[in-house]
Amino acid sequence: MGRVVVILTTAAAVVACSVATVMVRRRVKRRRKWRKVVGLLKELEESFETPLGRLRQMVDAIAVEMQAGLVSEGGSKLKMLLTFVDDLPNGSERGTYYALHLGGSYFRIIRVHLGGQRSSLEVQDIERHSIPTSLLNSTSEVLFDFLASSLQRFIEKEGHESISSQDVKRELAFTFSFPVKQTSLSSGVLIKWTKGFAISEMAGEDIAECLQGAVDRRGLDIHVAALVNDTVGALSYGHYHDPDTIAAVVFGTGSNACYLERTDAIIKCQNPRTTSGSMVVNMEWGNFWSSRLPRTSYDIELDAESLNSNDMGFEKMIGGMYLGDIVRRVILRMSQESDIFGPISSILSTPFVLRTNSVSAMHEDDTPELHEVATILKHLGVSKVPLKVRKLVVKICDVVTRRAARLAAAGISGILKKLGRDGSVGEGRRRSSDKQMMRRTVVAVEGGLYSNYRMFREYMDEALRDILGEDVARQVVIKAMEDGSSIGSALLLASSHSVRTISNI
Ligand code: ADP
Ligand code: MG
Fold first, then answer.
1. Where, if anywhere, are coiled coils annotated (predicted)?
2. Do the Cβ atoms of 465 and 414 come closer than 8 Å?
3. Can you give the CATH number for the domain in which 231 is found?
4. What sign does the dihedral 37-43-47-53 (CA atoms) show?
5. Is residue 399 classed exposed, middle or buried when 0-12, 13-18 and 19+ CB atoms within 10 A define those classes?
């Protein structure tokens, strides 16, 4: 009996020892895996770092590239396109105008009525629709017929007091969010598609003519009277409400900026024919490139697999179309190099499956258990990960978005530097009292990324204060505007009409 007890006790001890050993081994393995993940995260943070010194170098590089792009055609990756917009709306415009805005993800149609003073601007109707993905690689006919049919439905809704019953042709501004070489305010040819559009054989086509053709084929009483880049629309809207507005930036599916430049600084344009002495320049800053940009292996892979590789390098670091995909690539790499996300999910390997609105939802998830993160990961085929892994995902979103927002702030500061409004002119000699004399400068900002992603806005504001210093930053007002580019394009068309009417008298 005594022997049996001894044997059983020994056996139990052996089992307990083996279980303990297995558990310890597992724990050691888990710790080692986690250490690996911590190492990967550290690498990620380092490669995405944007220290102030680097941002300042970028500011200088942007100002230099802007200058180079103004001197000669092709002088810089910044195209610095002429817009033929010299007078911005001021509030005195009158009439009813339309705008059709083709963005990267949405198209909008609006009708505005202007009563001759700022307070009388009335947006009478506005529609906003997603662009069907089938259009992105369709044909020119399909795209423009789709836009014309949407316009037709829009105007068919109008009541009896509609403009057509007054026997006046509808005047429409076409707000277009892709690079165009303008030949006048009302015409211009497509340089290239961006943001996932790939409609063949359209480069070199007159965009306004394409829309006018589709509108005419449907017998619509619409005159496509202006072709306006979305940033220029946003600047017009900003200026209409606040004459200190001198630049506009869009942070939506893609990113771009425009600003008001002195015509004598636009050296590549021999005969600018403006009365105001200035012209709005569309920078097409999505294509900005500098060796100072913190380019990582994720950016290189994303670019290589994109439809427009070696192009739009800046946009691919800050545009809403891309941030989600950068985050996805980081999570995928981590799940390949450690198994903290469980078995590798095939969904996670699908490009663009993680969208930037999900990134902001995860980043701003304030539930203690990070429920939103869990739900979004589940949709990506990653389920039942512990809280510390969910926290890791939030950190990844933070790293990617913080870099984007800081680069965006460097971009804005680059424009201010070019205009001598960044407070750096004669910095050595400038006394703090002079800094307080800095002119108030308003930058109009619009786009879904900016307006819907609080952390992006906060990081951008913080970086602007870092770069410019508190005194100068206080004079720089970032003004967010919803639908500014569509409304602003209609305002611009109205103001070009009033100029024409006055000069005809
Ligand atoms: P478009 O680029 O067509 O003019 P928007 O300016 O509305 O349209 O921008 C849409 C883009 O904004 C989306 O593709 C997405 O990248 C980004 N976005 C929209 N909502 C959010 C959000 N909640 N959080 C982060 N980004 C968002
Ligand atoms: Mg837009």
1. none
2. no
3. 3.30.420.40
4. positive
5. buried
Residues 133 and 272 grouped into a single domain:
no
Nearest CA to ligand 1 atom 4: 103
Has this prediction a pTM greater than 0.90? Answer: yes
Give the integer Cα–Cα distance in Å for 39 and 290: 28
Pocket of ligand 1 (CB under 6 A): 103-106, 177, 252-253, 320-321, 356-357, 360, 447-449, 452-453
Distance of CA 22 to the CA centre of its chain: 51
Q: Which residues contact 382 (CB under 8 A, 6 or more apart)?
A: 331, 335, 341, 342, 345, 348
User: What is the Å distance from ligand 1's center to 432 Cα?
Assistant: 40
One domain for residues 266 and 406: yes
Give the residue from 341, 179, 155, 337 showing the smallest Cα distance to 250: 179
Please, which residues have CB less than 5 A from ligand 2, an ion?
103, 230, 252
What letter would DSSP give residue 469? -
Residue 77 and residue 94 share a domain: no
From 106, 147, 253, the mutation candidate for ligand 1 (largest count of ligand atoms within 8 A of CB) is: 253
Atom of ligand 1 nearest to the CA of 101: 4
pLDDT average, residue stretch 385-402: 97
430, part of any domain: no
The mean per-residue pLDDT over the stretch 91-97 comes to: 95
With respect to residue 461, please indicate whether it lies within any of the assigned structural domains: yes
Distance from Cα 347 to the centre of ligand 1, integer Å: 22
Domain count, the chain: 2
- Output the six-digit token pair for 164: 């057509």
8 A C-beta contact, residue 482 and residue 451: yes
Q: Are residues 488 and 414 in the same domain?
A: no
Percent of the chain whose pLDDT exceeds 90:
81
214 alpha-carbon distance from chain centroid: 29
pLDDT in tens, 316-359: 999 999 999 999 999 999 999 988 999 999 999 999 999 999 99
CATH number for the domain spanning 65: value is: 3.40.367.20
Whether 398 is covered by a domain: the verdict is yes
On whether the CB atoms of residues 81 and 96 are closer than 8 A, the answer is: no
- The boundaries of the domain holding residue 320 are 51-82+245-422+441-474
C-alpha to C-alpha distance for 78 and 384, rounded to whole angstroms: 46
Q: Is the dihedral of CA 13, 17, 18, 19 positive or negative?
A: positive
Spacing, Cα 320 to ligand 1 middle (Å) = 6
Gap from CA of 227 to ligand 2 centroid (Å): 15
For the stretch 279-314, pLDDT in tens is 999 999 999 999 999 999 999 999 999 999 999 999
For residues 213 and 289, state if they share a domain. Answer: no
